[in-house]
Write a structure and sequence with these properties.
The chain is of the alpha/beta class. It is about 25% helix and about 25% strand. It is elongated, with a radius of gyration of 24 Å. About 10% of the residues have low confidence. Bound molecules: zinc ion.
Length: about 150
Amino acid sequence: MKSLHLSRQISVLRSFLLMVVLSQVAGCCLPPGLGRQKERVLMTVTAYCACRECCEWKRQCLIGPPVYATGPSRGKRKKVGITSDGTRARKGVIAADITRYPYATRMHVPGYGWGEVHDTGRLIKGDRIDVFFKSHRDAVAWGKQKLWVTVIRN
Ligand SMILES: [Zn+2]
């Protein structure tokens, strides 16, 4: 009787150990953060700010609802400082190709830091992104860089 109890304890211990081993093995495939995918992508990173120069050049940046982009009221009701998903433009806002990197995708850009996709742009397609700076001078100083960007998908 006592040995039966002991063997049951051993089998419980064994299955527990097996689960620990399996979770360790699975740990390589499943990154921390429950199903969140982390990847590194070589991207072309440009910069912009909320000024007229950056936005006219980009044409579609920071205009709020897309209905104001064309037609007779074009340029009139432009919401300066509001991104295409309605977020207030600030440091950490990233414009990306949302068919690849949907809104709220987190990215780490070397030299810029962590940011989140909240904007789009006519020229922002594929693995090209635009990082937001408060000042035009900082945006110009950034220029155009090829960088390994860490992408966290939600
Ligand atoms: Zn600017």
